[in-house]
Structure formats: C-alpha cells, structure tokens
Specification:
Radius of gyration: 15 Å
CATH class: Alpha Beta
Structural class: alpha+beta
Shape: globular
CATH superfamily: Chorismate lyase-like
Number of domains: 1
Number of strands: 7
CATH topology: Chorismate lyase
C-alpha cells in the first residue's frame, strides 16, 4: 500500500486489519466554499458543498483523517446516497459506480487529494495518512 495507489483505500485498510476497521464521523454538513479554494471542483461561484470529515481506524488506531467535499449538483440522482453514509466508508459507495473516474493525486506531505467523478459528477477527497499508517505501509 502506498500514497499513489489508485484503488479503494477502504479495501486496503480492511485487508490489513487484524481485528477491526471502522469509520468515525467527526463532522458533516454544508459549508460555504469559494471557487478558488477548490478549483478542481470547478464551482461557478461561492456556494454550499456537503463536507464530511472522518477518521479511518484500523484495530482502534487512527490510520487516515479524510475530508470529502461534494458540490450540490453531485448530490442529485445517484449522489443523494452520499448524504446518508453515516459511519459507512465512502469507498463502498464510490467503487460501485462502473463509470467511476479519478483524477491524478496531488500530494503534499502525508496528504493526498483527488477528484472522483461519481456518475460523471465531481467530489473532492483529501486523505491524510497518520504516522501509524505510514509505518504499517512501510512494513506491508
């Protein structure tokens, strides 16, 4: 497992868990975002996006801190299910879309970000890997 692996992070974390994998929701709700903050989302103007912040835990240790930013247009149609995730992993929903596309990663330190095109509509995912996770990745 490495930062540039384009597959499902959820599946990878589940595969290295000896006992458990869990998602802890830190916050979720609408936030106002200016177009220049996330140019990848191509927002036409300042608008509300759905923001979900979580911790992905393996065997009760935080491995990844993640944030997802979903424009209102993406929440229409099949995207409505993204509002109902609660403590389920985002990857379980995203990787069901047979037409799913993902932009190349942008890497900054231990954080990667990319835009998924879920049923053709964008959402931005930022994932920060903790030291615990990075040590496990080196050993795996």
């Amino acid at each position: 497992m490495n930062l540039l692996d384009p597959g499902s992070l959820t599946k990878k974390l589940q595969s290295i868990a000896k006992q458990s994998f869990s998602v802890k929701v830190l916050s979720e709700g609408f936030v106002l975002v200016s177009p220049h903050v996330f140019p990848e989302l191509k927002l036409p103007s300042k608008q509300a996006v759905w923001c979900r912040k979580v911790e992905l835990c393996v065997d009760n240790e935080v491995f990844v801190q993640a944030a997802t930013y979903i424009p209102l247009a993406t929440l229409q149609g099949p995207g409505r299910q993204l509002l109902l995730l609660k403590n389920r992993p985002l990857g379980k929903i995203l990787f069901r879309d047979p037409s799913l596309k993902r932009s190349p990663f942008k890497i900054s330190g231990n954080t990667r970000s990319s835009v998924f095109y879920f049923y053709g509509k964008p959402l931005l995912v930022q994932e920060s890997f903790t030291e615990v996770c990075l040590k496990k990745m080196q050993g795996a």
